[in-house]
Amino acid sequence: MNSDKKSDKDILQRPIVLVGMMGCGKSALGKSLSGALECPLYDCDDLIVEEQGKPITQIFADEGEKTFRTLEQEKMQYLLGRGACVISTGGGAVTVAGIMKNIKARAISVWLRCDVDTILERLGDDDTRPLLQCDNPRKKLEELLSARESLYAQADIHVDNTSNDIQGVVNTIIQELRT
Ligand code: S3P
């Protein structure tokens, strides 16, 4: 073993934040990565849903996207202070003012890249994403990706998550974290 390489315990000095579009695989990958690193996983959307007592579609319908973004901002600030952990964010979390700056300062960020075709294939008839409940989800995804790409690109590590090889992607991330 190369003694210069960091152990999994060493690399977990800060939270690891997964960013990327909806359907890019943040939740599934977060589970495997946190399992491999033996650290807690926090899913920002799940925590908001739990706290608000209603699904995201209902939060959007009752309070609007702006309120959801405020909840997202508050939750992310809290999670970034949790120490060693994996944080799975909602796809639009990066659009919250100042959040990328904060993530960069307090965590290690990973962008799970995924193309629109794969996202559409994965989401299928999913009706839990309010932003995609529109006439043309493909166009909406393309617009969102184009508006967010420069924010995602600020992440420390970029990995392609188009394949369904979760273990392979987890290994790639851990390798990147160790270098
Ligand atoms: C959103 C992505 C969703 C969820 C909400 C808004 C977005 O999370 O936070 O529907 O703006 O891209 P996932 O990325 O987990 O689907």
- Name given to the CATH homologous superfamily: P-loop containing nucleotide triphosphate hydrolases
Order of helices and strands: HEHEHHHEHEHHEH
Instruction: Report how far the terminal alpha carbons are from each other.
Output: 14 Å
Number of strands: 5
- Could you estimate the helical fraction of the residues in percent? 40-55%
What is the total domain count? 1
Strand content: 5-15%
By CATH reckoning, the class would read Alpha Beta
* Computed CA radius of gyration, to the nearest angstrom: 16 Å
**Distinct small-molecule ligands in the complex:** shikimate-3-phosphate
Number of helices: 9
Q: Which class best fits the helix and strand makeup? A: alpha/beta
Low-confidence stretches: none
Explain this structure to me?
The protein is of the alpha/beta class. The chain is built from nine helices and five strands; from the N terminus they run H-E-H-E-H-H-H-E-H-E-H-H-E-H. The chain has a single domain, classed as P-loop containing nucleotide triphosphate hydrolases (Rossmann fold). Helix content is 52%, strand content 11%. Strands 2-3-1-4-5 form a five-stranded parallel sheet, sandwiched between helices. The longest helix is centred in the last third of the chain and has 16 residues, at 137-152. The chain starts with 7 loop residues before the first helix and ends with a helix. It binds shikimate-3-phosphate (S3P). The site of shikimate-3-phosphate has 10 residues, from loops.
